[in-house]
Amino acid sequence: MPGGVHTDLLALGRIPDPFVGDNEKKVAWVAEQDWEYRCRFAPADAVLAEEKVFLICEGLDTLAEVSLNGQVVGAANNMYRRYTWEIKHLLRIGENELLIRFRSPVKFVQAEQAKRPLKGVSQAIEGSPHLRKAPCQFGWDWGPQLPPIGVWKEIRLEGRSAARLEDVHLRQRHGERNVTVSVAVAVERWNEAPLTLALRVTSPDGHEVWEATAPIHERSATAAVAIENPQLWWPNGYGDQPLYGVEVYLDQRGTVVDVRRFQLGLRTIELRQEPDQWGKSFTFVVNGVPIFAKGSNWIPADSFPTRLREGKGPGASLEQLIRDAAATHQNMLRVWGGGFYEEDAFYDLCDRYGILVWQDCIFSCSIYPLDRADFVDDVHREIIDNVRRLRHRASLALWCGNNEMEWGWEMWGWAEPELTPEQRAALAKMAEREWRVQMLLDAINAIQLLPDWRTLREAYDRFFHITLPGWLATLDPDRPYWPSSPSSNTPFHDVNGQRQGDAHYWEVWHGRKPFTAYREQFPRFMSEFGFQSLPPLATIRTYADEPDWNMTSYIMEHHQKNAAGNGLIIAQMTENYRMPKDFPSLVYTSLVLQAEGIRYGVEHWRRHMDRVSGTLYWQLNDCWPVASWSSLDYFGRWKALHYAARRFYAPVLLSIEDVGTNMAVHVTSDLRQPWSGLVRWTLETLDGAVIRSGEEVVQAAPLANTPVVELDFGAEVNDENRRRVIFVAELWRNEELVACSIATFAPTKHLELRRPTLNATISGQDGQLVLELTGDTLARFVEISLEGVDTVFSDNYFDLPAGRRRIVTTPLPTGWTLAQAERALRIRSLYDAFA
User: Fold this and answer.
1) Does 91 reside within a domain?
2) Does the residue 816 lie in any domain?
3) Where would you tag: which of 238, 339, 611, 684 has the fewest CB atoms within 10 A of its CB?
4) 154 & 166 share domain
5) Which stretches of 434-547 are DSSP H helices?
6) pLDDT tens figures, 176-195
């Protein structure tokens, strides 16, 4: 242990791989059964010698009864909680038997739903809001219905004598040139002998130590140290991430009876909301510096999370995913409220890589029984456990109450009255043309099952605007709270507005609007928006055989959990590109389509960083192999979007705002110091013949967008030639190319592209494969790969205008020669996808 029923049965060969084909359906029975785990163990003599012995279960998933040597110890009903039971009186010298009986989560939620129907998401097994278990495990519009069962976190025996640390609260107070680190502890004790609290802080390099002690008075104590000239922790791209070591000891007569260890980043953080000309700002400020949040939304990285803890799963590791987010200049991840509070390793990585965490509490897109005192009491214990566990984290930026539930109450029809037959018929007719009306109608149909919706809405209001923020103010007074995402912090009014708060924008996906619609949006903080793609072909091969390689095949639709998803991809594809010639080309085109759409939005919002303070695209990662909104697929393969993120989240961004024949060039800087360079621009034919050119000196202001030049090509571009000309802007610094961007005067599908001759020169240097690419005509979205191996290139899916040179590197695969790499090298562009 840890272990889960599905993964254990899979390891034993008792079930097929749930991620292959439609095996998800074939293993549905697993979650519908009750299961038992047994283990026999002999406790160490040192443990038995302690005054008290505790059985600590860090995570039981979910409905569990725990017995030791035939005696029931306790029960669990919340996967997010830490359960602790004192068991010394039940332990034997020699062999002991621990038994955990798990009840079916599916049967439980179905039975509760029959008694009291609650609104959930349409792709999920009904009734999930009744159980404190990750909502997405019951199904989502990117996830399978595979609710796991088992011991999903560590389970252990812990012996203690005299006393133990019940709660440890680290805080920091920043002065001009010093930081005071303080600790407050609560102690559980079993004798009256004196106890001492000891605090020890070690510098990041281990060379300096600060110490303080204090006596324990009854059950509590505080201690503090002052650190002069502290090394501050910064988000990725704004500075370094030094981490101080912190040890908190409980001492009795020279014997350490308990100890806790932490890594601590010293920094201040606030959520600045100040009135301005557009409404009210929504800006994260770290160490006094306003941060433009560049990031994405995080979902559980495996449908079976025990595999991540064991490090034995087929998917990407937590380290790989967080590292690759940081590699694309991301500085914030939103831990979405439909999953779970992540394990310590996740936050360790975020602390190390400088990734701020927007932490949702685990409520999402549903109506929960918050009018039940026992349910709220259980959630209170859940909040205590997780806030105490996470509040010392440098990366933890904000607590958010829930995902999209306030929006649901305002806009999704959760609180709508009964409709007359005439009104229902009129809405149904409108729904044929407008997806939001259909969504509203679906919600209204569901709400008829909830005669107590007024009670539930009042309970929602009370919980997320009074109860939960009250708990958090007590447990973590140094962290901002936000009631819901999206929210304007004006309950049930203008929830997804653009004057204040955060916004989710889904009109481009669900609403079928063009990517240009992003430029009509000016939210104060864009916390969700996205567009889907298929996963890379290598990933599709893991779940679909070649006869199933068709967008409307049974298996391809089974691995597309958004009902209209494949059709929406094709519809947007035909608006932008020519129809691909075969399935591999379709996969490639879907990848570049997704990347281009998200790029278009992010570049617009970064140009308006004085008004918009962050963009978190949906989503970073996947929990299984599937068509989705992710930029990293389940195996960690980089989609075109992830490469694009490395460019559009670069600290210094070059972008083009194109309106008809007008081209405005911008440089946006997240640097804390001025930046100078040069923009060289050309109006040229697809084959590189220059029609007009120029260059502009750039003096980019820190933490700001700088308009460089605005050009009108109305005299040069007309209906006759607009399909044969492009605008190219290049950003240079010290004669090195920093970035290249192009804009077209016609949709890419209408460009008169011809097959590019792409020449690649291969060399090796310090274990790196170095490719030098040139082309004789515009090559759009150049994709580079090495057949038979997964590798990450320094750049990929980029535009290569005629006559330009691009150097791309990647680690030479272990054991490979340059000759092998040359034989495995594959290069294609958009032209190859349809010609």
Assistant:
1) yes
2) yes
3) 611
4) no
5) 435-447, 453-462, 468-475, 537-540
6) 999 999 999 999 999 989 99
